[in-house]
Amino acid sequence: MSRLVVVSNRVAPIDEGKQAAGGLAVAVLAALKKTGGIWFGWSGTVVEEESQSEPRRTDVGRLTYATLDLSRRDFEEYYNGFANQTLWPLFHYRVGLIEVSRRTREGYKRVNGYFAEKLVPLLRPDDMVWVHDYHLIPFGEELRQRGCNQRMGFFLHTPFPAPEILVALPNHRELIRELCAYDLVGFHTQVDLRSFADYIRQELDGEVEDRGPEGGMLIHAFGRTLLARAFPISIDTENLVGIAEIAARSRHTQRLKESLVGRRLIIGVDRLDYSKGLPQRFQAFEQLLLTYPEHCNRVSFLQVAPPSREDVPEYIAIKRELSELSGRINGRFAEFDWMPIRYLNKSFGRRVLAGFYRTAHVGLVTPLRDGMNLVAKEYVACQDADDPGVLVLSTFAGAARELDSALIVNPFDIEAVADALQRALTMSLPERKERHAAMMRILRSHDIGWWRESYVDALTRAPYG
Length: 465
Ligand code: ADQ
What we know:
The chain is an alpha/beta fold. 43% of the residues lie in helices and 19% in strands. The protein contains 16 helices and 16 strands. It has helices at residues 23-35, 72-91, 102-119, 139-145, 163-166, 172-179, 190-204, 237-247, 251-260, 278-291, 313-333, 350-359, 374-381, 414-425, 429-445, 448-460, and strands at residues 4-10, 37-47, 56-60, 63-71, 128-132, 151-155, 184-187, 207-210, 217-221, 224-230, 264-269, 299-304, 341-344, 362-365, 390-394, 407-409. Helix 9 packs parallel to helix 12. It is globular, with a radius of gyration of 22 Å. The relative contact order is 0.11. Adenosine-5'-diphosphate-glucose binds next to helix 1 and helix 13.
């Protein structure tokens, strides 16, 4: 069996005793434990000196963690700059927010080259390399330029935008050439895959052979052949069901329930990011109280949103906007014994969150664009199957392609989201159970193990040329 080499911007903290936090970390670790291999990426540390260091290696059984620090300049240009101020807004259809600068584009390429340079000596000829996310699109081409012929796959965790959006990026052709250096390119949904294929056909005159939903599309472009396919990421469903059952009786859950004193709960959990549609979500809750005043003092909305990317101006702006909005709505509707919105800028552990999800009667997940959105899946898996809550889900989350038994909404349509909340809060038990069961069938058949294995299996079959 070939070794797997996983490359991602961040490497999950190395702590054997603790369970890795995110779904991705769980999947990656499970895959690496099976095959043995390397997890390679940024350490998360920024150093002031410019000089490039050697990777720091930690061996845990058959698994090696190899991490590199970033200089302040690399961090500003590659991470804060091109990745988070150009590609992130672009891929989330926010063309008006993109920063265009040759300096950050060059920094992005430079760091990808530096990472590739440092990985090459660690690679064996029959390794499989699996690169993750928008920070590292040029990484495969950088490896190939250094003589690496290994099987290489890339997985994009964000949406892939329609070609009409992508062309707003200067040198978009170069970025797609870099993407085409891989043997396998994975997206979350058929929608993303179709956008990629449309770009190949419209902008490059490339050839696309559609092999059906399970087979993906063979792409012929830049003199190479690669497979592009949708692999919707998922959660560790059975594990989370078990965690939620235990969490239902935990101290945090009890405290949350007691604080509600019989009121019902709507929950939102997101990184504080402008792609998550939080201002519209707050307004939709306000609209619910206006249109259906019977919920005043009867329903609370808990929004957990830990700040992220705080060096980027748009993230400072959205944080301020949400503080003002929650303050205004609470000032308008609060009673001496009821706060309509509980807005928290902090994160919670997985177990605590599982208990919160289970307590909530409605999961409100309304991103304006999202590659997948794992919170939607986690909310469903944490419900009590005998008395489940209702998921209200944005049609612009990748998860909506699979979880079509949720109440699907357009997050820009604030009145319609308020109506969906009303429908969720008044839904009969049989309908709630039926919708929940349908979504659980999908989450059980397509869990994180399925995602990992189907991707690695497709990569094993490379090259496709
Ligand atoms: P994110 O944009 O971070 O991920 P999402 O998939 O919803 O979005 O969340 C990732 C994880 O972080 C989830 O497991 C969630 O429980 C956890 N999380 C979020 N908020 C939290 C909080 N307040 N406290 C504790 N944990 C919290 C990107 C893409 C998504 C894609 C994932 C995986 O933007 O579209 O689904 O990668 O591919």
